[in-house]
Design a protein that fits this description.
about 625 residues, mainly beta, about 55% strand
């Protein structure tokens, strides 16, 4: 499973794994390895499971890691994980696509405190990663591949984000930082509670003047800035020992400036463009335990409102809403047998001013989880979805893990196979039937995409804390929907399979009590059904992270290096190969008081992830945080 972070090994990222594969010595205590073996994840099957028993591929990012890396945008944190790549179009707040194992970002489900925060108002039902800040995030789990049986997720998998959880007593943290591009961020978190009631409130206000988003903007050459205000609230009430009620709320208000749009009155091109983004989301849930049974009832809603402006005038706007009511249950027959089952009732809607469309999709699922002794663990499940427009579909998943004691550690063999489907979005259907489409798109009747994939892997965790992992994956999307980039006629559909396969390698090495290395490498071979390379997918991705604790752990120095090679543009031309280095320092000035700094793109690498879109030059940031 990817990235199990030891407490000794704190930084992140990667490099050539084969050197570390020969090393099996470390100075961290054996208790650390035991803690890693028993780490609990919930994303694979929506209920807590020990990571050592899970056959799917899961990465875990902790709050400590997020703080050590220091990135403002959450997608910059997640791109340090195996199998994850990101393309950004002009800096913080500009449109960003996060791809897992080469799949499009809209094929990945993103949950925040259990809320599906997908934006239904865009061309595809997709998360807006550009508006997700790292501040206030406690944990992220990434389920890679078409294994999202329990959620109805597609080929990309599931990203589950948890904000800071309430704790007993009263405490919190405040922080402030600033740096290049006149960037400044203020964040605060306050939480507390008793055995009966608990709460947590966190907020972040971020501002940056940014830099010129596009190389083609040579006339204005203006800075394209971004503002973001995010607020999260969590409230829990333990009504009885068996019943817990909870409420989560979230609001995001973002404004991004960009280049290359058209005036509303004359239709002339202009680089004075902006996008206002607002999202309000909430979730309420009731969890009840009764003997061998557990039950959860929940309802969540997410409303998105986007407005676009050109040369100071309103251009167009879209609104979207996603609502989901769910029941999740489990029955534990014994320590080695459990059934997980549930129902999801979902409604999507989009209003772009010209059309107002709504669609329902209901899902029903059942999964068997079995264990044989303390060494063999298997799951097998099925899901049945009924879509208003595209009928019924069945999805499946099987997974297994086999544990073998080996050389004062534990070797794990794992495998998983899963299927999924994606119905054409309301926007895709509406566009092809609207006035902007023409042949061949207007003559194309879109049908659902179907996906399947598997992975095979092995991992080894030594009592010293050394962790090694290798995974082979292969997944396919049948009848991929894509926009006609040649004639701009609308949305077309390929016949045949679009493929993504490759290898993920992960290593973690606590060199000493104070020095740790983390590394991962991903080889990703992506092909369309016609045999051409899929655009913007690096063939080689590597990360290397180092963390060094000094002065009785009061000073932490870190370095994170990332390399991307072999990506192509839509026309098949080669994109920039690049490598970037980030340096960080954190110093505990007094109890609860910490000062920190980071240097992003320390080598001042000049590169583009998407042609004609600029990326940040070397940029320094410094800040202070106080915990109480």
């Amino acid at each position: 499973m990817s990235i199990f972070l030891s407490r000794c090994a704190s930084a992140r990222p990667a490099f050539l794994i084969r050197t570390l594969m020969t090393l099996a010595v470390g100075a961290c205590p054996a208790a650390l390895a035991a803690a890693q073996l028993e780490e609990v994840v919930v994303t694979s099957s929506r209920i807590p499971m020990a990571l050592r028993e899970v056959g799917t591929s899961i990465s875990v990012v902790t709050q400590e890691e997020i703080g050590q890396l220091g990135f403002t945008s959450l997608y910059d944190v997640l791109r340090t994980q195996p199998g994850v790549s990101v393309t950004n179009t002009g800096g913080t707040g500009s449109a960003a696509a996060l791809r897992i194992r080469g799949e499009e970002g809209y094929r990945t489900l993103v949950l925040l405190d259990g809320i599906d925060i997908s934006d239904t108002s865009g061309p595809q039902v997709s998360p807006r990663f550009e508006h997700l800040l790292s501040s206030g995030i406690q944990r992220v789990e990434i389920l890679r591949g078409p294994q999202g049986l329990m959620y109805g997720a597609d080929a990309g998998g599931v990203v589950s984000i948890t904000t800071i959880s309430p704790t007993q007593g009263l405490g919190g943290e405040v922080s402030a930082e600033g740096g290049r591009y006149d960037s400044r961020q203020v964040a605060a978190n306050l939480g507390g509670g008793s055995e009966v009631v608990d709460f947590n409130l966190s907020g972040t206000d971020y501002r940056t003047d940014g830099f010129n988003a596009r190389t083609t903007d040579t006339r204005l050459g203006d800075k394209d800035g971004y503002d973001n205000s995010t607020l999260n609230a969590r409230l829990g009430f333990n009504a009885t020992e068996a019943l817990r009620l909870s409420l989560v709320g979230r609001t995001v208000d973002g404004e991004n400036h960009f280049d290359d749009c058209y005036t509303t009155d004359t239709g002339e091109p202009t680089d004075r463009c902006s996008d206002d983004y607002e999202q309000q989301a909430w979730r309420m849930a009731a969890d009840y335990s009764a003997g061998r049974f557990t039950h959860q009832l929940s309802h969540n809603s997410s409303d998105t409102d986007r407005s676009f402006y050109s040369a100071g005038q309103f251009s167009f706007g879209t609104k979207g809403q996603l609502e989901r009511s769910s029941y999740l249950g489990s029955f534990g027959y014994s320590d080695g047998l459990r059934l997980v089952y549930g129902v999801d009732l979902e409604r999507q809607s989009i209003d772009d001013g010209a059309s107002d469309e709504t669609r329902d999709q209901n899902g029903y699922y059942l999964e068997y989880q079995g264990g044989f002794g303390d060494r063999v663990f298997v799951t097998a499940g099925t899901r049945y979805d009924d879509n208003d427009d595209f009928g019924t579909h069945s999805s499946y998943r099987v997974s297994g893990a086999y544990l073998i004691p080996l050389n004062d550690g534990e070797l794990k063999l794992k495998s998983a196979y899963g299927t999924g489907f994606r119905a054409p979005s309301l926007y895709e259907i509406s566009y092809n039937s609207g006035s902007f489409a023409y042949p061949p798109a207007s003559n194309t009747t879109l049908k659902e995409e179907q996906s399947e994939g598997y992975d095979l892997g092995l991992s080894w965790l030594a009592s010293s804390g050394v962790y090694l992992e290798a995974v082979y994956f292969d997944q396919k999307v049948e009848d991929e929907i894509y926009f006609d980039q040649a004639d701009y006629s609308g949305y077309l559909q390929r016949s045949g399979d679009t493929d993504s396969s490759g290898v993920e390698l992960v290593a973690q090495w606590p060199v000493t009590q104070n020095l740790s290395l983390n590394t991962n490498y991903t080889f990703n071979d992506t092909k369309t059904s016609t045999g051409s390379r899929r655009p913007y997918r690096p063939e080689h991705l590597a990360n290397l992270g180092l963390n060094w604790q000094l002065l009785n752990d009061d000073l932490a120095l870190g370095a994170a290096w990332r390399s991307s090679r072999g990506a192509q543009d839509i026309d098949g031309s080669q994109l920039d190969d690049y490598q970037v280095l980030e340096l960080t320092a954190n110093y505990q000035l007094a109890p609860g008081l910490q000062v920190y700094g980071r240097l992003e793109n320390a080598l001042d690498e000049d590169y583009q992830e998407v042609p004609t879109y600029n990326t940040s030059s070397a940029a320094a940031y410094a800040g202070m945080r106080y915990a109480f």
